[in-house]
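User: Need the bound-state model for alpha-D-ribofuranose:
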Amino acid sequence: MPPRKIIIDTDPGQDDAGAIMLAVASPELEVLGLTAVAGNVPLELTARNARLILDICGRGDIPVHAGADAPLKRKLVTAEEVHGKSGIDGVEIYEPPTPLTNGHAVDFIVETLRREEAGSVTLCPLGPLTNIALALEKAPDIVGRIGAIVLMGGGFFEGGNVTPAAEFNIYVDPEAAKIVFASGGPITMMPLDVTHKALTRKDRVARLRAGGGKPASIMADMLDYFERFDEKKYGTDGGPLHDPTVIAYLLKPELFSGRECNVEIETSSELTLGMTVIDWWHVTDRKKNALVIRDIDDEGFFDLFIERLNRL
Ligand code: RIB
Ligand code: CA
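Assistant: Bound-state model below.
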């Protein structure tokens, strides 16, 4: 079976780093490129961080394209209080030897989808959906060529993490999310309802570090930093490991469960801006436009995460 081709759209972010490491450590996947988007920190830093994480993994051969430096219609909201000023505090920051690849991220997404066999490329958005929305607006023909969109974002039963109603990735660019969820693309959604069940408990971080791999140990250092904010906020042992759930779903979907639902995005109410309104009980006849994942085998998820990162 040939490896599954993916593009990771990302705003690193320590948890994005974990997703990127998991992807490059897994022979089932072929990472065609990373596309950076402004989110956790400004674009200049997310693009640098994406290159730095690939360099740590010895994969400077994977192209990184810079994309949108701001949401479609709003001022950028960032999350340095969670991720630190660099966006990936916890790791030694350096200028990666491999430069950014020329060409805008949106053009890379469109050209790749048009070049590769229809249905053969999976998009993995891990940040605000600005690049994905711009690609869909620029080239509506690509929607029928996308194999899958497996994204981290949103929340419903779990509420929000940046406002009571909204999760960060959707909140930063709700207009972009509205475009993506209305596109008809084959969406699988990893909301807070599932990622909050994947906690980076101390014993799990220790197992990651004990595996002996240098990238895994660097990842453990990043998690030590990243989890402090959520441990304080939620009073838990460890914080939610959001973005790697997207890649784990590609590798072992049997670790997850959910249902097809209608998902709409709030873009006008100030109180609930960015809320993902998930019709989980199918009380409306609105089109089911996403597979919404709600449960995870968290032991199996961390076994996979730790085993794979220690291959690097
Ligand atoms: O709300 C969590 C999401 O926002 C994660 O993708 C994290 O990296 C940030 O982008
Ligand atoms: Ca992210």
